[in-house]
Design goal:
- The chain has about 270 residues and is mainly beta.
- The protein has one domain.
- Helix content is about 10%, strand content about 25%.
- It is built from 2 helices and 11 strands; from the N terminus they run βαβαβββββββββ.
- The chain has a 9-stranded mixed barrel.
- The two termini are about 25 Å apart.
- The N terminus is likely disordered.
Length: about 270
Protein backbone atom coordinates (compact mmCIF):
# COMPACT_ATOMS: atom_id res chain seq x y z
CA UNK A 1 0.00 0.00 0.00
CA UNK A 2 1.27 3.48 -0.80
CA UNK A 3 1.44 5.59 2.36
CA UNK A 4 2.54 9.03 3.40
CA UNK A 5 5.04 8.17 6.16
CA UNK A 6 7.22 11.03 7.38
CA UNK A 7 8.69 10.95 10.85
CA UNK A 8 10.55 14.25 11.03
CA UNK A 9 10.36 17.80 9.74
CA UNK A 10 11.88 18.14 6.28
CA UNK A 11 12.50 20.99 3.87
CA UNK A 12 9.92 21.21 1.10
CA UNK A 13 12.46 20.06 -1.50
CA UNK A 14 13.65 17.02 0.43
CA UNK A 15 10.14 15.88 1.24
CA UNK A 16 8.88 16.35 -2.30
CA UNK A 17 11.75 14.30 -3.67
CA UNK A 18 11.01 11.55 -1.14
CA UNK A 19 7.33 11.53 -2.06
CA UNK A 20 8.10 10.90 -5.71
CA UNK A 21 9.89 7.72 -4.68
CA UNK A 22 7.38 6.59 -2.06
CA UNK A 23 4.22 7.09 -4.07
CA UNK A 24 5.06 6.06 -7.60
CA UNK A 25 5.55 2.50 -8.84
CA UNK A 26 8.99 1.90 -10.31
CA UNK A 27 7.59 1.98 -13.83
CA UNK A 28 5.95 5.36 -13.30
CA UNK A 29 8.59 7.42 -11.52
CA UNK A 30 9.25 10.67 -13.36
CA UNK A 31 11.58 13.65 -13.24
CA UNK A 32 10.21 16.88 -11.80
CA UNK A 33 9.98 18.62 -15.20
CA UNK A 34 7.27 16.22 -16.37
CA UNK A 35 9.29 15.06 -19.38
CA UNK A 36 10.12 11.51 -20.35
CA UNK A 37 13.43 10.06 -19.14
CA UNK A 38 16.25 10.41 -21.65
CA UNK A 39 16.43 6.67 -22.25
CA UNK A 40 12.74 6.69 -23.17
CA UNK A 41 13.72 8.40 -26.41
CA UNK A 42 15.93 5.53 -27.51
CA UNK A 43 13.15 3.77 -29.41
CA UNK A 44 11.16 0.68 -28.56
CA UNK A 45 11.44 -2.10 -31.12
CA UNK A 46 8.95 -4.54 -29.67
CA UNK A 47 9.56 -7.22 -27.07
CA UNK A 48 13.08 -6.97 -25.72
CA UNK A 49 13.95 -4.18 -28.14
CA UNK A 50 14.60 -1.20 -25.85
CA UNK A 51 17.93 0.52 -25.36
CA UNK A 52 19.44 2.06 -22.25
CA UNK A 53 18.67 1.23 -18.63
CA UNK A 54 14.91 1.90 -18.57
CA UNK A 55 11.89 1.09 -20.67
CA UNK A 56 11.93 3.05 -23.92
CA UNK A 57 8.92 4.87 -25.30
CA UNK A 58 6.88 2.45 -27.46
CA UNK A 59 6.89 3.16 -31.18
CA UNK A 60 4.38 2.35 -33.86
CA UNK A 61 1.58 3.98 -35.87
CA UNK A 62 -0.89 6.37 -34.27
CA UNK A 63 -4.06 4.46 -33.24
CA UNK A 64 -7.31 5.54 -34.90
CA UNK A 65 -10.94 5.09 -33.98
CA UNK A 66 -13.47 3.40 -36.27
CA UNK A 67 -14.38 6.78 -37.78
CA UNK A 68 -10.75 7.63 -38.55
CA UNK A 69 -10.10 10.02 -35.65
CA UNK A 70 -6.92 9.89 -33.61
CA UNK A 71 -7.47 7.68 -30.56
CA UNK A 72 -5.85 9.16 -27.46
CA UNK A 73 -6.85 6.23 -25.26
CA UNK A 74 -4.18 4.58 -23.14
CA UNK A 75 -2.32 4.62 -19.85
CA UNK A 76 0.03 7.61 -19.74
CA UNK A 77 2.76 9.01 -17.53
CA UNK A 78 3.82 12.68 -17.30
CA UNK A 79 2.32 15.22 -19.72
CA UNK A 80 2.26 18.36 -17.57
CA UNK A 81 4.27 20.47 -15.15
CA UNK A 82 5.23 19.02 -11.78
CA UNK A 83 8.15 21.01 -10.38
CA UNK A 84 8.02 24.25 -12.36
CA UNK A 85 5.59 25.24 -15.10
CA UNK A 86 8.37 27.31 -16.64
CA UNK A 87 10.31 24.17 -17.55
CA UNK A 88 7.83 23.61 -20.38
CA UNK A 89 7.95 27.07 -21.93
CA UNK A 90 8.03 27.09 -25.72
CA UNK A 91 10.88 29.02 -27.38
CA UNK A 92 10.39 32.75 -27.04
CA UNK A 93 7.72 32.43 -24.33
CA UNK A 94 8.07 34.06 -20.90
CA UNK A 95 6.08 34.08 -17.68
CA UNK A 96 5.35 37.62 -16.53
CA UNK A 97 3.19 37.96 -13.45
CA UNK A 98 1.15 40.99 -12.49
CA UNK A 99 1.89 42.63 -9.12
CA UNK A 100 -1.12 40.76 -7.70
CA UNK A 101 0.11 37.42 -9.05
CA UNK A 102 3.69 38.08 -7.90
CA UNK A 103 2.51 38.86 -4.38
CA UNK A 104 0.61 35.58 -4.15
CA UNK A 105 3.52 33.65 -5.66
CA UNK A 106 6.03 35.04 -3.16
CA UNK A 107 3.75 34.26 -0.21
CA UNK A 108 3.12 30.60 -1.07
CA UNK A 109 4.10 28.12 1.63
CA UNK A 110 4.91 24.52 0.80
CA UNK A 111 2.52 23.20 3.46
CA UNK A 112 -0.36 24.88 1.62
CA UNK A 113 0.27 23.14 -1.71
CA UNK A 114 -3.16 21.68 -2.61
CA UNK A 115 -1.55 18.64 -4.26
CA UNK A 116 0.32 17.89 -1.03
CA UNK A 117 -2.99 18.12 0.80
CA UNK A 118 -4.66 15.44 -1.34
CA UNK A 119 -6.52 17.85 -3.62
CA UNK A 120 -6.73 17.74 -7.44
CA UNK A 121 -3.91 19.20 -9.53
CA UNK A 122 -6.12 21.18 -11.90
CA UNK A 123 -4.85 22.19 -15.36
CA UNK A 124 -2.14 22.02 -16.66
CA UNK A 125 -0.36 20.47 -13.65
CA UNK A 126 0.04 16.71 -13.52
CA UNK A 127 0.75 14.50 -10.52
CA UNK A 128 3.77 12.14 -10.71
CA UNK A 129 1.54 9.10 -11.11
CA UNK A 130 0.00 7.32 -14.13
CA UNK A 131 -3.28 8.48 -15.63
CA UNK A 132 -5.59 6.98 -18.24
CA UNK A 133 -7.49 8.46 -21.17
CA UNK A 134 -10.81 6.90 -22.15
CA UNK A 135 -12.21 8.22 -25.43
CA UNK A 136 -15.73 7.88 -26.79
CA UNK A 137 -17.57 9.59 -29.62
CA UNK A 138 -18.89 12.24 -27.21
CA UNK A 139 -16.40 12.46 -24.32
CA UNK A 140 -12.74 12.19 -23.40
CA UNK A 141 -12.15 11.20 -19.79
CA UNK A 142 -8.93 11.51 -17.81
CA UNK A 143 -8.76 9.04 -14.91
CA UNK A 144 -6.06 9.94 -12.38
CA UNK A 145 -4.34 7.54 -9.99
CA UNK A 146 -3.39 10.47 -7.74
CA UNK A 147 -4.46 12.14 -5.63
CA UNK A 148 -8.00 11.08 -4.93
CA UNK A 149 -8.86 8.98 -7.99
CA UNK A 150 -10.27 12.17 -9.50
CA UNK A 151 -11.42 12.44 -13.10
CA UNK A 152 -11.64 15.13 -15.75
CA UNK A 153 -14.20 15.14 -18.54
CA UNK A 154 -13.87 16.84 -21.92
CA UNK A 155 -17.02 17.20 -24.02
CA UNK A 156 -16.43 16.54 -27.75
CA UNK A 157 -20.08 16.31 -28.82
CA UNK A 158 -20.35 19.84 -30.21
CA UNK A 159 -21.92 21.51 -27.19
CA UNK A 160 -20.87 25.06 -26.22
CA UNK A 161 -19.48 26.14 -22.87
CA UNK A 162 -21.90 26.40 -19.98
CA UNK A 163 -23.00 30.05 -19.89
CA UNK A 164 -22.36 30.31 -16.15
CA UNK A 165 -20.17 27.38 -15.04
CA UNK A 166 -19.61 26.75 -11.36
CA UNK A 167 -15.90 27.20 -10.55
CA UNK A 168 -14.28 23.75 -10.40
CA UNK A 169 -10.82 22.17 -10.17
CA UNK A 170 -10.78 21.00 -13.81
CA UNK A 171 -13.12 23.60 -15.31
CA UNK A 172 -15.61 23.31 -18.16
CA UNK A 173 -13.71 21.66 -21.04
CA UNK A 174 -14.92 21.65 -24.67
CA UNK A 175 -12.93 19.74 -27.29
CA UNK A 176 -12.96 20.23 -31.06
CA UNK A 177 -10.92 18.65 -33.83
CA UNK A 178 -8.33 20.57 -35.86
CA UNK A 179 -7.26 17.87 -38.27
CA UNK A 180 -5.58 15.20 -36.14
CA UNK A 181 -5.21 17.58 -33.17
CA UNK A 182 -7.72 17.81 -30.36
CA UNK A 183 -8.15 21.41 -29.19
CA UNK A 184 -9.50 21.64 -25.63
CA UNK A 185 -10.85 25.02 -24.53
CA UNK A 186 -11.42 25.27 -20.76
CA UNK A 187 -12.96 27.99 -18.59
CA UNK A 188 -14.78 27.96 -15.26
CA UNK A 189 -11.83 27.14 -13.02
CA UNK A 190 -11.67 27.80 -9.32
CA UNK A 191 -8.57 29.60 -8.00
CA UNK A 192 -7.49 26.91 -5.54
CA UNK A 193 -4.87 24.82 -7.36
CA UNK A 194 -1.25 25.68 -8.12
CA UNK A 195 0.45 25.17 -11.48
CA UNK A 196 3.47 23.48 -9.87
CA UNK A 197 5.51 22.85 -6.71
CA UNK A 198 6.80 26.42 -6.88
CA UNK A 199 3.31 27.77 -6.32
CA UNK A 200 2.54 29.64 -9.55
CA UNK A 201 -1.03 30.88 -8.92
CA UNK A 202 -4.02 31.74 -11.06
CA UNK A 203 -7.39 33.41 -10.70
CA UNK A 204 -10.91 32.32 -11.58
CA UNK A 205 -10.42 34.10 -14.90
CA UNK A 206 -7.97 31.39 -15.95
CA UNK A 207 -8.60 30.19 -19.51
CA UNK A 208 -6.55 27.34 -21.00
CA UNK A 209 -6.34 26.17 -24.60
CA UNK A 210 -4.72 22.76 -24.95
CA UNK A 211 -3.64 21.11 -28.19
CA UNK A 212 -3.34 17.33 -27.90
CA UNK A 213 -1.52 15.40 -30.60
CA UNK A 214 -0.42 11.78 -30.83
CA UNK A 215 2.29 11.63 -33.51
CA UNK A 216 2.89 7.94 -32.89
CA UNK A 217 1.80 5.08 -30.61
CA UNK A 218 3.85 6.01 -27.56
CA UNK A 219 3.83 9.82 -27.61
CA UNK A 220 1.20 12.31 -26.44
CA UNK A 221 2.20 15.95 -26.89
CA UNK A 222 0.21 18.51 -24.90
CA UNK A 223 0.71 22.18 -25.75
CA UNK A 224 -1.15 24.55 -23.44
CA UNK A 225 -1.77 28.26 -23.72
CA UNK A 226 -2.38 29.84 -20.31
CA UNK A 227 -4.46 33.01 -20.23
CA UNK A 228 -5.13 34.80 -16.95
CA UNK A 229 -5.23 38.62 -17.02
CA UNK A 230 -5.46 38.83 -13.23
CA UNK A 231 -2.24 37.04 -12.29
CA UNK A 232 -0.24 37.24 -15.56
CA UNK A 233 0.57 40.22 -17.76
CA UNK A 234 0.26 38.20 -20.96
CA UNK A 235 -0.62 34.68 -22.09
CA UNK A 236 2.15 32.11 -22.37
CA UNK A 237 2.51 28.66 -23.92
CA UNK A 238 4.02 25.50 -22.51
CA UNK A 239 4.48 22.01 -23.90
CA UNK A 240 4.98 18.68 -22.12
CA UNK A 241 5.05 15.13 -23.44
CA UNK A 242 3.37 12.07 -21.94
CA UNK A 243 4.66 8.56 -22.53
CA UNK A 244 2.45 5.52 -23.13
CA UNK A 245 2.68 2.74 -20.57
CA UNK A 246 1.65 -0.28 -22.69
CA UNK A 247 1.45 -2.56 -19.66
CA UNK A 248 0.17 -1.94 -16.16
CA UNK A 249 -2.99 -0.48 -14.69
CA UNK A 250 -4.04 2.32 -12.39
CA UNK A 251 -3.73 1.27 -8.77
CA UNK A 252 -5.91 2.31 -5.86
CA UNK A 253 -4.14 5.19 -4.20
CA UNK A 254 -6.22 7.17 -1.69
CA UNK A 255 -4.14 10.14 -0.66
CA UNK A 256 -6.29 11.00 2.37
CA UNK A 257 -5.63 7.58 3.92
CA UNK A 258 -2.91 7.93 6.56
CA UNK A 259 -1.98 11.34 5.14
CA UNK A 260 0.86 12.67 7.32
CA UNK A 261 2.78 14.88 4.91
CA UNK A 262 1.38 18.39 5.02
CA UNK A 263 2.16 18.99 8.68
CA UNK A 264 5.83 18.24 8.01
CA UNK A 265 6.23 20.67 5.11
CA UNK A 266 8.15 23.80 6.08
CA UNK A 267 9.33 26.91 4.27
CA UNK A 268 8.33 28.59 1.03
CA UNK A 269 7.07 26.66 -1.96
CA UNK A 270 9.86 25.41 -4.21
CA UNK A 271 11.24 22.72 -6.46
CA UNK A 272 11.76 19.20 -5.12
Amino acid sequence: MKKHLVSSVMTAGALAAALLLLHAPAQSQAPADGKAPADAKAGFKGKGGGKGKGKARPTGPTPKTADGKVDFSGLWNNGGPIGDVGQGLLPGETIEMTPAGEAIFKSQLSKNDPEANCLPTGVPRIAPYPWRILQTATHIFYLFEGNIHSFRQIFIDGRPHDKDPDPTWYGDSIGTWDGDTMVVDTIGFNDKFWFDFRGHPHSQQLHTIERLSRPDLGTLDIETQIIDPVDYKKPFKIKFTATLMPTGELTEYICQENQQDAQHLVGPAGLP
